């Protein structure tokens, strides 16, 4: 078959209308599709950023890691090429006695190794898409509460670090690995949300959504891998916030309603004196939620759930040895289906729209990528007057029901300066 391949713009192909441009441009900050862009991103990372990967890789915002995952997932970058370039640098730095460089390259190659490990697991244990690798979680009594799931998706749990991560995920389609661990652990350990629901939501929202890596990540945090987090491990988001975002900059970036909270209280606004809350324009339960669950209660519920799991497991084993039929309750745990009560017209904003400060000045025709965004960090700190009006915009905690399946279509409802949450 012969024929001429012609080049057409996205507009000519009718793939994007005016209303979709702004939300698409925000996704473009993390990924600009195309081989030339992927090669450029790889070269830039290897030459300028790999050297400091070991020191920077735990910073939550911006360019602390390679940001190559969407390119690798979509095959725009061969993982062998990434490996080869990083390995070459590692050899060079070892030869030069550059300890920092050598350590950075080793850690980066290890990260690539995790990706290979995810492939190995799924190839060797294909059922891990549906079931945990360790059989223990089969009997775990998940709390399949759609309202908790929704609060988590919308970044309205009342735990600022978690909420900031979930809002960044929705706005840009990308969050740092550490944030993925924090928000997924919160869902599974604090709220007892079935890990498969979270995995599905990540699958719907991540630009780098990758079946094997997603499975590995969710099983890693939910205690179903032999070398992952223990099932009983529950991390306190307040403590993690102090550790990974001590000044609260990441939170301020993604939660405009907390932008004026002092660093001392930003990770636990529920403890802040009323005078501090008032001065910061925060009304708990009004423009920012109270914690969805108390940490001590969450610990207790997790412990009870683990005991219940053991009991059910023992009872099931006992009954199956008497040749009785065993029904696995978790097999019936379906991800909630979503039906929008009313279809939101395109371009309309709703009461649950959230304003993302950094999106305000984006030009839709020239989306800065994540790296550029980071170097311009100082320029886009939210100004106080804007935040004052922002928090009034999110004063209503909505009751509308919608699901992960709607994520892509709802994204299109965003206006220039705001976006709908799932
Ligand atoms: C719950 C959860 C879900 C995840 N879902 C995905 C997913 O859908 N797609 C995805 O690509 N990654 C996923 N990850 C892994 C990891 O978070 C991302 O690969 C990483 O954050 C991508 O950013 P980067 O390219 O800057 O990473 P870098 O730190 O620069 O790492 C370089 C490359 O190594 C690979 N990599 C790094 N860490 C991991 C890891 N833990 N597991 C697998 N591969 C890794 C990626 O291909 C990445 O691009 C998930 C992690 C968790 C905890």
TrEMBL record:
Cofactor requirement: FAD; (6R)-5,10-methylene-5,6,7,8-tetrahydrofolate
MF terms (GO), sorted A to Z: deoxyribodipyrimidine photo-lyase activity; DNA binding; FAD binding
Pfam families linked: FAD_binding_7 (PF03441)
InterPro entries referenced in this protein's UniProt entry, alphabetically: Crypto/Photolyase_FAD-like_sf, Cryptochr/Photolyase_FAD-bd, Cryptochrome/DNA_photolyase_1, DNA_photolyase_1_CS_C
Residue ranges of the region described as Disordered: 346-422
The keyword Flavoprotein is annotated on this UniProt entry: yes
Site positions (Electron transfer via tryptophanyl radical): 142, 195, 218
GO CC terms of this entry: cytoplasm; nucleus
Transmembrane regions listed in the UniProt entry: none
Top-rank taxon: Eukaryota
Compositionally biased intervals (Basic and acidic residues): 363-393
Cofactor note: Binds 1 FAD per subunit.
Gene3D superfamilies in alphabetical order: 1.25.40.80, DNA Cyclobutane Dipyrimidine Photolyase, subunit A, domain 3
Low complexity composition-biased segments: 410-422
Annotated keywords: Chromophore, FAD, Flavoprotein
Residues of the Cryptochrome/DNA photolyase FAD-binding domain: 108-306
GO biological process terms on file: circadian regulation of gene expression; entrainment of circadian clock by photoperiod; nucleobase-containing compound metabolic process; response to stress
KW Flavoprotein (keyword) present: yes
Biased composition regions of type Polar residues, renumbered to the chain: 349-362
Binding residues annotated for FAD, in chain numbering: 53, 65-69, 108, 208-210
Family: Belongs to the DNA photolyase class-1 family.
PANTHER family attached to this UniProt entry: CRYPTOCHROME, CRYPTOCHROME 2B APOPROTEIN
Name recorded for this polypeptide: Cryptochrome-2, variant 3
């Amino acid at each position: 078959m012969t024929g001429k391949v012609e080049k057409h713009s996205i507009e000519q192909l009718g793939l994007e209308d005016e209303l979709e441009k702004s939300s698409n441009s925000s996704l473009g900050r993390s990924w600009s599709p195309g081989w030339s862009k992927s090669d450029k991103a790889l070269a830039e990372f290897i030459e300028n950023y790999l050297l400091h990967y070991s020191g920077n890789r735990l910073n939550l915002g911006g360019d602390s890691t390679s940001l190559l995952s969407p390119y690798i997932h979509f095959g725009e970058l061969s993982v062998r090429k990434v490996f080869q370039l990083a390995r070459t640098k590692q050899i060079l730095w070892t030869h030069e006695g550059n300890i920092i460089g050598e350590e950075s390259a080793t850690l980066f190659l290890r990260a690539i190794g995790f990706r290979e490990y995810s492939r190995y697991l799924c190839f060797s244990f294909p059922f891990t898409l549906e079931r945990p690798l360790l059989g223990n979680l089969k009997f775990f009594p998940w709390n399949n509460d759609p309202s908790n799931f929704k609060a988590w998706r919308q970044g309205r749990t009342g735990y600022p670090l978690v909420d900031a991560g979930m809002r960044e995920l929705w706005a840009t389609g990308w969050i740092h690995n550490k944030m993925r661990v924090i928000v997924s652990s919160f869902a599974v350990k604090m709220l007892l949300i079935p890990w498969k629901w979270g995995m599905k939501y990540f699958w719907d929202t991540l630009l780098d959504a990758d079946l094997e890596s997603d499975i590995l990540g969710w099983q890693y945090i939910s205690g179903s891998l032999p070398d992952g987090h223990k099932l009983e491990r529950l991390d306190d988001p307040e403590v993690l916030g102090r550790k990974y975002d001590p000044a609260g900059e990441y939170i301020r970036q993604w939660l405009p309603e907390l932008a004026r909270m002092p660093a001392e209280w930003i990770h636990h606004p529920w403890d802040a004196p009323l005078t501090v809350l008032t001065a910061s324009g925060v009304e708990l339960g009004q423009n920012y939620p109270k914690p969805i669950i108390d940490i001590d209660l969450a610990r207790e519920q997790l412990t009870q759930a683990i005991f219940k799991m053991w009991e059910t497991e023992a009872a099931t084993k006992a009954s199956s040895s008497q040749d009785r039929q065993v029904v696995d309750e978790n097999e019936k745990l379906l991800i909630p289906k979503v039906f929008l009560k009313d279809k939101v017209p395109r371009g309309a904003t709703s009461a649950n729209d959230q304003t993302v400060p950094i999106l305000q000045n984006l030009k839709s025709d020239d989306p800065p990528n994540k790296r550029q965004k980071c170097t311009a960090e100082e320029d886009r700190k939210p100004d106080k007057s804007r935040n004052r009006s922002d928090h009034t915009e999110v004063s209503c905690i909505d009751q509308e029901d919608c699901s992960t399946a709607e994520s892509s279509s709802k994204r299109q409802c965003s206006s220039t300066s705001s976006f709908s949450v799932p």
